[in-house]
Amino acid sequence: MDEVLRFIELEAGRGVALSLWEALFAFLVALLASLCIAITYRLTHRTPGYSQSFVHTLVLITLITAFIMVVIGSNLARAFSLIGAMSIIRFRNAVKETRDVGFLFLAIAAGMGAGTRFYSMTLIAVGLMCFVMLMLERFDFARPIERPEGLLRIQLPPDSDLEKLLGPILEKLFESHSLVSLETAKKGLVMEALYSVQPRPEVTAPEILKEVGTVNEGLKVHYHHGAHTDPL
Predict the structure, then answer these.
(1) Distance, CA of 20 to CA of 5 (rounded, Å)
(2) What does the angle CA 95 – CA 100 – CA 106 come to, to the nearest 5 degrees?
(3) What is the pLDDT of residues 73-100, one digit of tens each?
(4) Residue 223, SS3 per DSSP
(5) DSSP symbols for 127-153
(6) All domains of the chain in start order, with CATH
(7) Exposed e or buried b for every residue in 28-41, given b needs 16+ CB within 10 A?
(8) What is the pTM of this model?
């Protein structure tokens, strides 16, 4: 343990400092890599909920990570100080898509590579991974064999007979349907039924809302395309 502490004391303040031009070049490489990542994310994003601020965040994270790596260098004391500072930060924004996490990690890795002067490796790795993402998008890799299911949430008067009231309509609109949950809402004044549904190819979302709205006495109807994205 004493040897470790002595090593840290010797290393403190002895990091290899980058010149101003080296630091600027590191930021330039980080910027190029981050723009490549951001453009790839924009071109491959399909699902609803696209966020321009998230794209800007990808660029910012890459530059910030590069700056951190330039400041730390090989100085262990600064590295431990950074760990202590980061430990008090709490991140509360949930990432909606799993692929967004991958782009965040890629942005961080690109910033680390640029900040530690692995310029060629950073640009090649980012370019290769962005190319892979574009090809996956181009050929629609791993697309679902069947059309994605949807979620249909219907509010009904209390004590409604679901099968009698909704059965004919659901058979008409959907190839398949199954009841997921049933609960009361608004202090028991209404009943909410949640169905997992497979719409027929010729049926549109407005038709679903219109048809279901004719049997639930004008109460709320919510149809959500693609149950795998966001819950109702």
Answers:
(1) 31
(2) 130
(3) 767 666 766 666 566 556 666 667 889 9
(4) strand
(5) HHHHHHHHHHHHTTTT--SSPPPEEEE
(6) 2-138 (no CATH), 150-224 (3.30.70.60)
(7) ebbbbbbebbbebb
(8) 0.63
